[in-house]
Structures are given as structure tokens and as C-alpha cells.
């Protein structure tokens, strides 16, 4: 059975997720751990659960989601998987990290590119992928149908959507992608976003002011 553990790291209050199943194999999504104490929290959990980390995955590569990439790659000797459209987004982080208060940011590069036609397999689990651009040009969303878990990054939030005013963002693209991709997921799918609390596809279909039935835009 797939399990999820969430952590909230860095001043952006970013959600980092660890997914693992009964085999004790797992994946780390979007490690935002920058400070030593944050990295210890993540590592101590993995040790306490006896997990073997197989992959590091970025849903997208904005600074708040990649601050711990180098740490995770070194600590667990795992490859970094991203969408190819995020290469330039990831590479640009080192140019502005100090301006955001992260002078110790350690740059990393992707080891493997993935897209919506791929699947992520670890232990007894297979995650499917959806391509949901708009917040970032290569934003991916990962989901498991049996456990109803969806790692949504910064696409869909409780009562909101990801911002689209950053380089590579596009408001209409995001709205369309949420409706055509995420809203085709089961209504009881639990959405775990990059910031804030979880929600469900059904709730957002009904209530989201941007893409739901009561949308004001």
C-alpha cells in the first residue's frame, strides 16, 4: 500500500513529499530542504522508516522546489528526473538564488527526462504522469489510481491555482491543462499540492474560483 509523508520547508512554505510502499522503496518529490535542520528532518524520517530512495523527482524546477536537490542526490545516490522543458528553469536558479536569500544553493543537473508517456515504478507501485504546463513550461503531475494520491506541484491548490506570472508561465495554458488533464482524474483523487493543505478533484471541480463550476474568470 502506498504511503505518503509530507514536510513543509523553507520560507516559501513548500511541501516536500516522500512516497513509499510496503517494500520500503520510495521517491522524494520536490525537496525544498535548504537549512541543515531541514535536511536532518527529512533524512531522519527516511532512516526511521528504513526506506531505500530510488528516485528524486521535480514536478517543476522553481527555486522553492529544488533547494534540496543536491543534498538528496548525494545522500541517497539517486538520479534526478524532470521534464525536458524544465532544464532552463532549473539552470536559471543559480543566477537568482542569492537574491532570494539562498547564497548556499548547490546547482544540480537532471539525469533523466520524463514525460506524460512514462511511468515511475518503485517497489510494488507504478505512478502515472500527466503533463500540466502553465505554471512552469514542463510541469508534471504524478498519480496512483489505487491509493488516490496525486502529487500536483504548483498546478492546483485548495481553492486556487498556481501563479502564471513567472517566466514560462501562461494563465490560459494552465486553466486548460487543469481542465483537460487533472479534472479527468477520479473525483476522490486526493491532490497534494506544492503549498498548503491537500484537496480533492471533486472539491475543486465544484468550488475552485478559477477552474471550477463557480469560476469567476
Automatic annotation (TrEMBL):
Give the InterPro entries listed for this entry.
MBL_Glyoxalase_II, Metallo-B-lactamas, RibonucZ/Hydroxyglut_hydro
Needs which cofactor?
Zn(2+)
Keywords, A to Z, come to: Hydrolase, Metal-binding, Zinc
Give all residue intervals belonging to the Metallo-beta-lactamase domain: 13-195
Pfam families hit by this protein: Lactamase_B (PF00753)
Q: Which residues form the signal peptide?
A: none
- Domain of life from the UniProt record: Bacteria
Show the SUPFAM superfamilies listed in the entry.
Metallo-hydrolase/oxidoreductase
Under what name is this protein listed?
A: MBL fold metallo-hydrolase
Q: Which organism is it from?
A: Belliella calami
The major lineage groups are:
Bacteria, Pseudomonadati, Bacteroidota, Cytophagia, Cytophagales
Amino acid at each position: 500500500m502506498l504511503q505518503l509523508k509530507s514536510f513543509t520547508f523553507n520560507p516559501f512554505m513548500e511541501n516536500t513529499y516522500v512516497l513509499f510502499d510496503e517494500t520500503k522503496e520510495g521517491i522524494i518529490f520536490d525537496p525544498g530542504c535548504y537549512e541543515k535542520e531541514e535536511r536532518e528532518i527529512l533524512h531522519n524520517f527516511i532512516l526511521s522508516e528504513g526506506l531505500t530512495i530510488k528516485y528524486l523527482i521535480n514536478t517543476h524546477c522553481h527555486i522553492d522546489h529544488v533547494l534540496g536537490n543536491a543534498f538528496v542526490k548525494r545522500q541517497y545516490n539517486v538520479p534526478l528526473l524532470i521534464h525536458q522543458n524544465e532544464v532552463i528553469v532549473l539552470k536559471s536558479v543559480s543566477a537568482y538564488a542569492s537574491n532570494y536569500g539562498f547564497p548556499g544553493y548547490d546547482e544540480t543537473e537532471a539525469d533523466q527526462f520524463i514525460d506524460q508517456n512514462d511511468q515511475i515504478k518503485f517497489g510494488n507501485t507504478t505512478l502515472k504522469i500527466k503533463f500540466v504546463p502553465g505554471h512552469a513550461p514542463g510541469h508534471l503531475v504524478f498519480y496512483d489510481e489505487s491509493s488516490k494520491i496525486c502529487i500536483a506541484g504548483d498546478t492546483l491548490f485548495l481553492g486556487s491555482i498556481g501563479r502564471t506570472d513567472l517566466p514560462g508561465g501562461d494563465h490560459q495554458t494552465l486553466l486548460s491543462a487543469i481542465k483537460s488533464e487533472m479534472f479527468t482524474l477520479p473525483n476522490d483523487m486526493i491532490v497534494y499540492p506544492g503549498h498548503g493543505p491537500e484537496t480533492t478533484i471533486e472539491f475543486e471541480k465544484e468550488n475552485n474560483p478559477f477552474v471550477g463550476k463557480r469560476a469567476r474568470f
